[in-house]
Amino acid sequence: MSRIDCLKGKRALITGASRGLGKALAMEYASKGCNVVLVGSRRNENDLLKTRDEVGLCYPGDHVIRTCDLSDVDDIMSLVNSNLPAIDILVNCAGVFLIGKISDMSFEEYEQCIAINVTAPFLLIRELSKNMLKNSWGRIINIASSSAYAGGPETSVYCTSKHALLGLSRSLHKELKEHNIRVTCVSPGSIKTEMGREVEKLGQDFDTFMEPHEVAEYVVFNSSYNGNLVSEELRLNRMFVQ
User: Fold this and answer.
1) Catalytic annotation, pick one of 59, 110, 149, 158
2) Which of 124, 156, 178, 198 is 20 to 30 Å from 144 at the Cα level?
3) CA dihedral of 160, 14, 124, 92, whole degrees rounded to 10
4) Is residue 29 annotated as part of the catalytic site, yes or no?
5) What is the tens place of the pLDDT at every residue in 117-170?
């Protein structure tokens, strides 16, 4: 089986798929013959429908959408216990970016950031990896951030969550690789998305940010390897960083 052929016919679930990097990842996986499950919040359902229609127009397949509040444990469990198709590829892309001094950060904001950026990936991996274990094949891609390796002022909660996601990924890579399940933590620098506009408030130049489609292409390219080569961590940086 060729490198790209290993993705054909697989079912990929992508969170945060209504726009930005999540949408780009959905398009890229569909272009390689995957059927995609697009997951987003209920307030973004119209955007999810548009993404599904765009993906289906370019790459026909069995593409579906699901809405879920990723900050709510019960809602996540309802998602995985519904008539969800068996998942071969899980991409935890949804995330929230908080800016604020630690003295001004509420506990509720902290809880929401940890819930969406760490707890939701943990629960989805725990539940959806069961089918991967059964089939001895799987891909788990956690979208972290360059903040998983660094810290910055007014981003303490966000950096905390991404450090945690990196640690989760490193442990699961070692735990699951013997079952032919590849766990990859992708830590990109700033991307031209709505979240990127928030990053711009910290003094970064939006024009230097990476394009969502090029990040998506790199991620899918990495996940298409099916031999002994593995890259469990990807750090994707801009050419020009202030």
Assistant:
1) 158
2) 178
3) -20
4) no
5) 999 999 999 999 999 999 999 999 999 999 999 998 999 999 999 999 999 999
Residue 118 · residue 164 · CB < 8 Å: yes
> Is 240 buried (19+), middle (13-18) or exposed (0-12) by CB count in 10 A?
exposed
Give the 3-state secondary structure of 90-130. EEECCCCCCCCCHHHCCHHHHHHHHHHHHHHHHHHHHHHHH
Residue 229 CA to residue 210 CA, distance in Å, equals: 26
SS3 state of residue 17:
coil
Q: Is the pTM of this model over 0.90?
A: yes
Helix (H, G, I), strand (E, B) or coil at 86: coil
Rounded to an integer, what distance in angstroms lies between the CA atom of residue 84 and that of residue 64?
10
78 three-class SS: helix
